[in-house]
Amino acid sequence: MLNRIIILMIAMTSLNINAETVLELGEYPPNYLGRDVNGNDVTLEDNKGKIVVISFWASWCSPCLKELPILEGIQNKVGDDKVKVVAINFKENSKQYRRIKNKLSTLKLTLTHDKRGAIGKKFGVKGIPNLFIVGKDGKLLFHKIGYGASSINKIVKVLNEELAS
Hints:
By secondary structure, the protein is of the alpha/beta class. The chain contains 5 helices and 7 strands; from the N terminus they run H-E-E-E-H-E-H-E-H-E-E-H.
């Protein structure tokens, strides 16, 4: 009987090793968001009390490049003391990232680089754009894959509700 329990426990544990990460609303997302352009670690913990908008993007993704300036505009309008946008470049090599980072240097966003996709994997990211909104309490409020005009209305609604709370 004990052998069956041990075998069952091993089987259940091995199933979780390859399980996909799926963040649910209300959960605490991974803390680490990469390093900024100055080499400083960017974490959710360092932005506690703020709403953090996390966007996984790439230079070849035109919807991503349309979304980033809009997110920056929201951050600028509300104030980065209340809303912080972290734009995580997803699975691009260092040369591509440096090139696009220079083109986006006028944007007042926190840019980080997830070259191998390790950060995205912890968030369950498979495609981009992929956006997460983390509330002032550090819990996931919103998740959206893809981008369109209607996305912005949903993002603004979630942000307004969280700012009002």
